[in-house]
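FAQ: What does a ligand-bound record look like?

Like this one, built around NDP:
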Amino acid sequence: MRLANKTALITGGSSGIGLATARRFVAEGAKVAITGRDAGRLEAAVRDLGPNAQALVADVTDIAATEAAVARAAERFGKLDILFANAGIPGATPAGATKPEVFEQVIRTNLTGVFFTVQAALQHLNDGASIILNGSVISVLGNPGYSAYAASKAGVRAMARVLASELSPRGIRVNVVSPGATRTPIWGAALATPDAERAFEARIAATTPLGHIGEPENIASTVLFLASDEAAHIQGQELFVDGGVTSSP
Ligand code: NDP
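The answer part, i.e. the structure of the complex:
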């Protein structure tokens, strides 16, 4: 029970990496609030997670709604010990075809949303808390089509270092987990049919030194580590969980 008596807030906790992390946190003894935009998906997730989970409908692009959700989690649980700012959307269009509203929505969700989630949480976090931000290998790879997404995630990394400096006096740690391709609904059509999934897996396997796609649980176990006291001296770092993609030539 590495998170006994701990409380956590996970944005985007109704699916994929966020939900897998919520499962690990609850299994390790934490009380967990999860956010998302879709109430039905959140309720389903909470039924799955059990009585130590709470669902809060909140869009991270809505600063007031984010503040309200964080305040409600703190009201129910008391102070927060862990924040996983995880909510994010993809965005893959070639630069010439990227509409302003698409670019802005990716930045508003993946970067602005992360910042204002952290800001909203500051007054509710215990000293010694752990903040984990969700980055991405895309921020260092230069894959075609990902200008907005890569910029948003590179911003997350840069922001984490600043937040780590600012929050160190309170003993609050701020780190980034940066997944490689991971099997979640974010991939949409690429996983929509068994044939599409096999083709996608083969493509990822061919470009991943460890030879397979990541699973949400791979990321969840890393977030659990960063959230726990075992990572007590890790501050301002980015941990890639990508099967070796960013370390290969
Ligand atoms: P999913 O699509 O499975 O989950 C995304 C979650 O974020 C959902 O719970 C979704 O709920 C929520 N969400 C999306 N937009 C908002 C919003 N505006 N406000 C609140 N919640 C929101 O994707 P993943 O689990 O794969 O993605 C989680 C994070 O991991 C993202 O930041 C993503 O960029 C990052 N990542 C994922 C990789 C992958 O290969 N899967 C690789 C690298 C990084 P709802 O739609 O109901 O709002």
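Follow-up question: can I read anything off the structure? Yes, for example: DSSP finds eight helices and seven strands in the chain.
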